[in-house]
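Annotators were shown the component list below and the corresponding predicted structure, then asked to write short factual statements about the assembly.
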Amino acid sequence: MNNKIKKKLVKNWFKDLQDLICYQIEEIENYSTSFKNKIWNRDKLKDQGGGEYRILENGKVFDKVGVNFSEVYGKFSKEFRDQVPGAKKNPNFWASGISVVMHMKNPNVPAMHFNTRFISTSQSWFGGGIDVTPCLVDNKLKFWFHSELKKCCDRHNKKYYKKYKKWCDNYFYLPHRNEPRGIGGIFFDYKKDSWEKDFAFVRDVGLTFKNIFYSIIMKKNKIKWSKSDKEIQYLKRGRYVEFNLLYDRGTKFGLKTGGNSDAILMSLPPSAKWK
Amino acid sequence: MNNKIKKKLVKNWFKDLQDLICYQIEEIENYSTSFKNKIWNRDKLKDQGGGEYRILENGKVFDKVGVNFSEVYGKFSKEFRDQVPGAKKNPNFWASGISVVMHMKNPNVPAMHFNTRFISTSQSWFGGGIDVTPCLVDNKLKFWFHSELKKCCDRHNKKYYKKYKKWCDNYFYLPHRNEPRGIGGIFFDYKKDSWEKDFAFVRDVGLTFKNIFYSIIMKKNKIKWSKSDKEIQYLKRGRYVEFNLLYDRGTKFGLKTGGNSDAILMSLPPSAKWK
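Structure shown to annotators:
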């Protein structure tokens, strides 16, 4: 299959998934509120792609959820050429992705994050992952969440889960705090085993995320919470902010490639506290 | 004067200034609340210095204020040796400093920041600055603040104010937002014109900060504020967090040299919001 068709298929899937996820969220909110969307372009004069971010705030279930689609292209700056595989040879790039961050009203429901992307330079690869960040301990939920991810991974390759779980644990870690961000999940990057198989896996990860967040919300959103639970959530969100601004590669990549800062920083919680 | 005596004099000044500033703040709070302090060491086994940070929260005037003193020494990691003047030749370093960040209850009073430091490798130099971040516009205050800084600078060298104001404007800037952090101030680094004169300037900057924050609070803290003013303050604090975690060199330096993360991140506001 030629590269142009691959890009089109991937982009269309990410767009469709954005719709699917947004519909699911509005259903969970019982259609009492809806997403606001914003379309943005990387450059005002030259066509260098852009994206659409959708945001829902102050829902009954979600404090803030952002669902971001982007398709960007152009030339990498000199600074980036050494850092991105295949960009040294040729600075042209194309990248498309979807990312979702959910900050929940009920502190019993973890913050949830999902992202998949396809990047094309003189090489091309997929990346992505799912991870959740509870602020209150629930080992049963942790076990269930990881078993769902393992099932998804096992459908494609029996080696994926172990490898991608470890990658996730290493990535979502705050060294200055000696703390993991949450309870992990799966994380993968530079994935270029076979385009067809990789794309099938990426689609499955997206649908698995949709099922996981729905199930977690159904399980946990009924549980009552106190003011002190909410305070714990605000402090945990402070850690989330620290991770995203100090370490997150997607944030750095986006800000340095002239991405839309509102879309990139949409992942930040509506409010956070520090002691 | 030998280097050992210089270090001792500088360190003692920073410690005394920490006391002076903390007394001033407790006086402003009418002694109804007081600082909590924590002494920390860089390493548990080897003596590599440490510091003392003091924090006052939930006051009548201050939402959160941190006053941090540190004296650290050791060897720079390989990563840092290329970045710090004089560290390539010899990785040993000694550094001492004081930093203050004030997040105010009344949104009419700007957030205020001050820092001075002395760093010694095979070279040695001073750095520091004062800057303020209002969330509500007050051009009269801005004019007064800058004229006070100019007076302080002019006492030492007529060229300082213009140079250090520009440096401050360039440094406290959020490129991804196309926004300055606040209304500027003065910022200087790698200052090694004459140790005696530089140290006199650094002491004056410290005392000027003490006068400035006292005067600003006396001027502005009486003004009534609304809930929507407070919301503007929370959003402005979000920008403050973005700057500190994405760009602030002191934060990066501290976290990468194994500084105490609570002391370093003490600069973060008690609470922040993002839209």
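Statements collected:
1. Chain A touches chain B at residues 57, 176-177, 234, 238, 241-242, 245-246, 255, 261, 264-265, 268-275 (CB under 8 Å).
2. DSSP finds eight helices and ten strands in chain A.
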